[in-house]
Design a protein that fits this description.
Layout: H1 2-16, H2 20-26, H3 47-129, H4 135-164, H5 169-226, H6 230-236, H7 243-265
Helix pairs in contact: 1-3, 3-4, 3-5, 4-5, 5-7
């Protein structure tokens, strides 16, 4: 501490610039701000030399007093810094304990995130199976897939942010809870959309069965019409009547539409 005080005293003297020559040039006591009043010189000492020595002693004594005050202030500052250092050391120990607790909570959060990731993977598999529906159902499935990917990406980003949070345990825990709720909501929404798509597929299959039944009935009716006697057909219409091919075409049109309906459903 004494060595530090000596160094600080020397630094203060250098910074203030109070050298002997400067003291002689200023002709005033810096700290006390009074003009130096030298005593009468001895008989054998020239008056000019006596005045110079007395003035230099005045100025340098004032600079020394000022430097001493600065040293005392610096010593007080050092004591304050030591007190702050002790407080910071205690805070560091407390922070390390909190970091250990946060690490344990972070491990639990990572396990929970892994479960959510597995649930999201299962949801994605269900969405992949639903891509065989109609064009409208396919568009809805793509939207659900995009939402699920966005939720997974958001959960990953929030998990990475949670790994960096070591200062406030409560805040990190609240963020993870919000992330889990968002992921569960996304999963529930995806499941609802999948159920809706399955219901749509079942309805399309039922419609296809109805169309197939109508197609079979139309084919049976066409076969029954073909079995009628040719004489009756000739009596009803002339040989060159253009209405007969048109009737055949009209009979074939529902059958073609009924045949195209299952393909559209696929």
């Amino acid at each position: 501490m004494k060595r530090l005080a000596i160094l600080l005293l020397g630094a203060a003297a250098v910074m203030s610039g109070l050298t002997t020559n400067e003291c002689s040039a200023q002709r005033v006591c810096v700290v006390r701000q009074v003009v130096c009043r030298p005593a009468p010189p001895p008989r054998r000492m020239p008056y000019r030399v006596a005045v110079q020595r007395a003035y230099d002693a005045c100025v340098c004594e004032s600079a020394l007093a000022e430097s001493q005050q600065k040293v005392e202030g610096l010593e007080a500052s050092v004591e304050d810094l030591n007190t702050q250092l002790a407080s910071m050391t205690q805070e560091r120990d407390t922070s390390l304990a909190k970091n250990a607790e946060l690490a344990a909570q972070l491990a639990a959060m990572q396990a929970q995130a892994a479960k959510l990731q597995e649930q999201l993977k299962q949801t994605q598999q269900q969405l992949a199976q639903s891509k065989k529906a109609t064009q409208a159902a396919k568009a809805q499935g793509e939207k659900i897939q995009a939402d699920a990917d966005a939720a997974a990406k958001e959960a990953a980003n929030q998990l990475a942010s949670a790994q960096k949070a070591t200062a406030d345990v409560k805040k990190a825990n609240a963020e993870i809870q919000e992330q889990r709720k968002a992921a569960e909501a996304a999963r529930d929404a995806a499941q609802k959309e999948v159920d809706a798509l399955k219901a749509t597929v079942q309805k399309l299959e039922s419609d296809n069965k109805k169309v197939q039944a109508e197609l079979d009935a139309a084919k049976q009716a066409a076969m029954n019409d073909a079995k009628k006697p040719a004489v009756e057909a000739e009596g009803d219409a002339p040989a060159d009547d253009p209405a007969a091919p048109a009737a055949d075409a009209n009979a074939e049109a529902p059958a073609a539409e009924a045949a195209e309906a299952p393909a559209a459903a696929e």
